[in-house]
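Hello again, I could really use a second opinion on something today. Take your time with it, there's no hurry, and the full record follows here:

___
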Amino acid sequence: MARRTIPALPPLDWLRSFEAAARLSNFTAAAAELGLTQAAVSQHIRLLEERLKTRLFSRLARGVALSPEGAAYLPHIQSAFATIASSTTELFEPRAVRTVSIRVPISFALLALVPALPDLAEALPRVQLDLVTIHRPTDYDLPGSALDIRFGNGSFPGREAE
């Protein structure tokens, strides 16, 4: 089986400089956004243009304008950066903890739910349970719970039961 060769990518710094300069139409503004000097951004663009063997920008008196090739390249670079950012966030950024309120009889909480909490915490690491124990059937009528655990035949007026 033949190995597929992947063409070498331009350095990420060059692509970042290209994207910022294209979006801002100005090397100086791109440099400020990226924390670089204008000379560094200019050099990145020059090296990228040499690597691609095409002009990406037209230099103007005040700023720059994308060439047709630069305008065609820009959405691909922006899409690639968006994919990297999205993947990084999805895989490595802490997700918000969601609190789920459960109203439950105290006997069920003690005998069944509390012993299962370690397994629930492992299975649902981003869910925090807020257990509200009830002592009388009328306690179910109080507002504020996402889930009720009840004993009975499943016929509870105003509630969906499983």
Notes: The chain has five helices and five strands. The CA atoms of residues 83 and 110 lie 46 Å apart.
